[in-house]
Amino acid sequence: MSTLFRCAALIYTLLAVELLFLLTAAPGLALLLLLDRSASNVPLFALCAVPLAPAASAAVYAFRRRKSDLADLRPLLDFMRGYRLNVVAVLRIWLPALGLLAVLGVSLTHRGAAGIPAWWSALLVALGAAVVLWSVNAVVIASLFVFRTADIAKLAAYFLARRPGVALGTAGILLTAGAITVLASEAVALLPASLLIAGLVLVSRPMCAEIEERFLA
Predict the structure, then answer these.
(1) ∠ CA 36-41-43 to the nearest 5 degrees?
(2) Considering only CA atoms, which of 18, 31, 55 is closest in space to residue 143?
């Protein structure tokens, strides 16, 4: 019976967080669904992504505080508290990262007109991937810990090398979301958002545990 209760609690939390994520990210998502997959829209894609990080941060916070007791579930309160506490810290990390990704995206989608050689394009792709993985680390850290922005940035970069398993797990989750988007649509990719974020919390556990042990002790 306890296993059944834990499963019910998890499903309830996933559904509640999914709904809250969609509601808080709705301004950007609504515009995103209206845009064509055109290279000229890369800056607009970045603009649409602005609300995603605070919403994902709140979801990370809610999942980290999740309990298995059906009588003690508060995903709404945890989500909204996480959003309120972390929105400023997350945007301080997320906005510069989005700006850089937008520049890289425009450069790659217009590489012919700009005369960018293939080897340079490969470097830009590698840099973009590193920025994405770094920003995910930074959002998770900002969601669960209170550090200065500069320290969050340093820790996010440090753990890319220190915990490659976390980076690989994050890359797998992002590739899954990307594959769903390419094969179906952005709308379909949003349906398992809470499940993907819960997976992110799971793969980030070694990083979070080391932060608690080494930097908060």
Answers:
(1) 145
(2) 55
- The tens place of each residue's pLDDT in the chain, 217 residues long, gives 567 777 887 888 899 999 999 999 998 888 887 887 777 788 898 999 999 999 999 999 999 988 655 556 788 999 999 999 999 999 999 999 999 999 998 888 877 666 677 778 889 999 999 999 999 999 999 999 999 999 999 999 999 999 999 999 999 999 998 888 777 767 677 778 999 999 999 999 999 999 999 988 6
Single pTM value for the model: 0.91
Domain span at residue 50 reads 2-215
Q: Report the candidate in 107, 93, 198 with the shortest Cα–Cα distance to residue 137.
A: 93
CA distances from 83 to 10, 24, 40, 176, 204 (A): 20, 9, 32, 25, 19
The dihedral through the CA atoms of 75, 77, 81, 87 has a sign that is positive
Specify whether the CB–CB gap between 173 and 200 falls below 8 A: yes
Please state, in angstroms and rounded to a whole number, the distance separating the CA atoms of residues 169 and 200: 8
Alpha carbon 33 to its chain's center: 19
70: DSSP letter: G
- 173's CB contacts (< 8 A; 6+ apart) are 196, 199, 200, 203
As for how many domains the chain has, the answer is 1
Dihedral sign of CA atoms 22, 26, 30, 31 in order: negative
